[in-house]
Inverse folding.
């Protein structure tokens, strides 16, 4: 099977030659700011490159898959599949492509790349990887990861992933992505050195935020709801489709039995013999035609699966928003309470319960100097808090703006892709019907000669 | 599975037995045409139908005439029939208009039998009577009795094997009607059977039950004699042609049985496929409700799958109603043919045994005793009749299967054409560029 995309390999803008800002492990800036920094510098870079470098186009392909043996982290023998990632640059003038890079990657490295992208670009709907294990299989399809058909479909899925990343206006500029394509050795170490795992939001934190956030942007709430529903409906669709494929397989294959019995019957007939025999042959053809038909349909299932997994990517963006919003709300709440504390200290009124207030009552008032000191500390904290709140607010708004822009881009892509998928599915069905008509017409002709 | 409960036939409703006209009396039939005169007992007595004789309006066949000349005349007649192919046909029989009758004791279906004929054996040019399955069964038994040297066509199964089928559903009744129609038409086409007296009565009598009770009308000469053939004689050697027929029928029945099983299996798989399709289509609808631009395309796909499901259901219904019953009929046919072959063997065996006994006797009689001659006569009649019927059967079988299998192919083609139309019609919908919402 050739590359699944109906478009030819996507064309890239030139990968920037200088590393993009913000990827040094030494910087300790918060994730949100880093992403922001990327965006700003990236766009500047882009402007620079457009002005200073001649446009080169890049083609990416995952062209081969190979079984390998090696030793894993705990020094045990294991078999895995490695995929050949080839990058070609296309000379603009004559359209010739020259192989610039070629290296082998295994699935876990793709996963690593994606995890990295998720952390550093939380406002982007990051393209999903093909499934790790075969799911939604109908009985003839193997659930074995080593099965050649599965490996082949995975190869296409991985290529698709890389093409999606390469054609994303933001992601394509990422250095780690560039290194993934170009630097075979030590790439893993390089990624890990970015310390991205540490910067990742904890799942627990995110879950907490989801439940407790008070005022998330309504659009994100709706989007989250949509992605839940989308995931549910596509799962259902894939499950039923697998059962449909199973049943259809059964129908076709049983017809093969006609071939045999017609042949046996024709042996005892005089005039009817030839007609029966040749009709039987057509029944055999009919029975065996289902294999190719269903193999083609797997491609459709893969297209649906991609968007099933995309739903998860959408949810990740929503989660990030909720987390940031919750963070903001907590910061604002914290600031408000500190301000109140300060006010109470200054005016001497105790409106709210506090441990200090309690101990004061029990053990006596503090001295004016102590009081002054505390007020001073609080005032500093309040100042800091106000700064932080301001920047968090800005961050939050930037995030919402950028995320929503990417979501709109994603929506357009999704509508285009799924329409194409539906069209190609309809075309497959039409082809299947035509084949059916052909076979039965042939059989009918044989019967007419009986 | 078929949507909705099977349709029930209009019923005459419960009536007191006295009030209701006897349905078999013929007055409940819509047409006033004919059917009023029952052949008088006198007429019945004087007619006798020899299976080889040309039909004489009065008087029977002189006893004792032997075979060869008559059998060749029979063959001539057969050939004539084949050439004519319905153009100078003089007998037409149709089964239609099933009606349900509800009585206190039982509920049953009757069918209208319409007969049109120019034959002298029929007093009127047209008859219309009502008969129930029981009557057909009676007719068949009578034919077997009175024409034991001929192959009698099969009836559809008496009892419904799958207990789930409703005896009064429109589908079941229609299937049965077609089979009963086929049964009568096969008899009509038969040069000997169609002149059978019981057949005539069946087609014309207002009160068939009275005739049934009358006891035996005359059996044919051969029928009478074959009836008395005892079993228990051992056959020396079967003539090649009959051995071949026997072997053929064995294999034929086997293959048909296999085809029946395959066809049933296919229908089962198709029904299971249909069940999944019926769940599959609506999921696209559910999805469509979530989407904006994709809503119409997805809904279109859902509707398309729905259309394919309907087409598939029609296919499975057709195969169940039209294909399977005909297969089963032929299996029954070959079973009954086998028993006719056995009888033939017995007749031959009896003859051979008796002949041998005579040869062993030390008497000097140059002449073969009369009873041995009778046996020989019987045997040769039987052989000739059977041979002729086999040829006819082979020909009809070829045509029937040709039609049956072409019909099966046709139904599948129609199914795929319906699906093709559905899918082709949504392509423009899918490709449509939608205005920005």
């Amino acid at each position: 099977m050739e590359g699944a995309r109906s478009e030819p390999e996507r064309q890239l803008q030139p990968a920037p030659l200088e590393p993009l800002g913000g990827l040094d492990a030494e910087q300790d800036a918060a994730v949100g700011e880093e992403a922001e920094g990327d965006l700003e510098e990236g766009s500047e870079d882009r402007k620079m490159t457009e002005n200073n470098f001649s446009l080169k186009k890049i083609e990416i392909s995952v062209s081969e898959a190979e079984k390998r043996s090696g030793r894993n982290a705990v020094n045990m023998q294991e078999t895995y599949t490695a995929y050949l990632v080839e990058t070609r640059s296309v000379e603009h003038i004559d359209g010739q492509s020259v192989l610039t890079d070629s290296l082998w990657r295994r699935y876990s490295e793709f996963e690593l790349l994606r995890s990295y992208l998720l952390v550093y670009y939380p406002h982007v709907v990051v393209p999903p990887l093909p499934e790790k294990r075969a799911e939604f299989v109908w009985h003839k399809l193997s659930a074995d990861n080593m099965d050649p058909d599965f490996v082949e479909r995975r190869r296409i899925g991985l290529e698709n992933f890389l093409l999606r990343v390469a054609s994303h206006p933001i992601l394509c500029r990422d250095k780690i992505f560039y290194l993934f394509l170009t630097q075979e050795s030590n790439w893993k170490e390089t990624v890990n050195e970015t310390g991205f795992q540490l910067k990742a939001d904890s799942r627990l934190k995110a879950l907490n935020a989801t439940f407790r956030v008070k005022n998330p942007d309504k659009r994100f709430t709706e989007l989250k709801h949509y992605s839940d529903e989308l995931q549910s409906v596509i799962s259902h669709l894939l499950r039923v489709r697998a059962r449909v494929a199973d049943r259809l397989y059964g129908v076709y294959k049983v017809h093969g039995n006609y071939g045999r019995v017609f042949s046996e019957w024709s042996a005892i007939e005089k005039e009817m013999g030839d007609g029966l025999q040749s009709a039987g042959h057509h029944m055999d053809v009919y029975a065996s035609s289902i294999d190719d038909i269903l193999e083609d349909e797997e491609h459709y299932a893969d297209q649906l699966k991609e968007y099933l997994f995309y739903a998860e990517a959408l949810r990740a963006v929503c989660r990030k928003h909720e987390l940031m919003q919750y963070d903001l709300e907590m910061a604002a709440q914290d600031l408000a309470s500190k301000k109140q504390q300060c006010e109470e200290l200054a005016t001497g009124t105790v409106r709210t319960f506090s441990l200090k207030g309690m101990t004061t009552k029990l053990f006596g008032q503090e001295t004016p100097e102590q009081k002054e000191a505390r007020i001073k500390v609080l005032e500093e904290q309040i100042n800091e808090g106000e700064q932080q709140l301001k920047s968090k607010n800005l961050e939050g708004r930037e995030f919402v703006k950028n995320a929503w822009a990417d979501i709109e881009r994603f929506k357009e892509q999704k509508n285009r892709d799924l329409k194409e998928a539906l069209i190609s599915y309809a075309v497959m069905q039409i082809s299947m019907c035509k084949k059916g008509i052909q076979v039965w017409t042939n059989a009918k002709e044989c019967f007419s000669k009986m | 599975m078929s949507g909705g409960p099977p349709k029930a036939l209009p019923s005459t409703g419960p009536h007191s037995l006295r009030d209701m006209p006897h349905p078999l009396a013929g007055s409940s039939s819509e047409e006033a045409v004919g059917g009023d005169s029952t052949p008088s007992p006198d007429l019945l007595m004087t007619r006798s139908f020899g299976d080889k004789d040309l039909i004489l309006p009065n008087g029977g066949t002189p006893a004792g005439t032997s075979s060869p000349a008559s059998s060749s005349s029979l063959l001539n007649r057969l050939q004539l029939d084949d050439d004519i192919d319905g153009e100078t046909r003089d007998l037409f029989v149709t089964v239609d208009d099933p009606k349900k009758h509800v009585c206190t004791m039982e509920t049953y279906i009757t069918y209208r039998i319409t007969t049109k004929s120019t034959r002298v054996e029929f007093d009127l040019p047209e008859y219309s009577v009502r008969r129930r399955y029981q009557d057909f069964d009676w007719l068949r038994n009578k034919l077997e009795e009175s024409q034991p040297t001929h192959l009698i066509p099969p009836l559809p199964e008496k009892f419904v094997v799958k207990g789930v089928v409703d005896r009064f559903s429109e589908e079941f009744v229609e299937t049965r009607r077609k089979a009963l129609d086929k049964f009568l038409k096969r008899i009509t086409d038969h040069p000997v059977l169609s002149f059978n007296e019981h057949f005539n009565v069946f087609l014309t009598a207002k009160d068939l039950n009275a005739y049934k009770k009358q006891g035996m009308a005359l059996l044919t000469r051969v029928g009478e004699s074959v009836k008395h053939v005892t079993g228990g004689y051992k056959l020396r050697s079967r003539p090649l042609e009959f051995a071949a027929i026997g072997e053929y029928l064995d294999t034929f029945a086997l293959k048909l049985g296999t085809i029946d099983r395959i066809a049933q299996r296919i229908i089962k798989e198709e029904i299971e496929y249909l069940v999944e399709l019926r769940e599959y289509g609506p999921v696209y609808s559910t999805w469509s409700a979530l989407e904006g631009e994709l809503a119409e395309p997805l809904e279109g796909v859902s509707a398309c799958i729905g259309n394919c499901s309907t087409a598939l259901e029609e296919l499975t219904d057709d195969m169940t109603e039209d294909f399977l019953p005909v297969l089963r009929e032929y299996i029954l046919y070959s079973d009954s043919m086998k028993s006719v072959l056995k009888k033939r063997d017995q007749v031959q065996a009896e003859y051979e045994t008796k002949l041998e006994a005579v040869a062993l006797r030390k008497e000097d009689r140059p002449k073969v005793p009369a009873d041995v001659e009778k046996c020989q006569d019987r045997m040769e009649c039987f052989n000739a009749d059977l041979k002729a019927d086999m040829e006819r059967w082979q020909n009809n079988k070829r045509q029937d299967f040709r039609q049956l299998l072409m019909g099966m192919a046709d139904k599948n083609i129609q199914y795929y054409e319906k699906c093709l139309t559905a899918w082709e019609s949504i392509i423009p919908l899918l490709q449509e560029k939608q205005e920005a919402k």
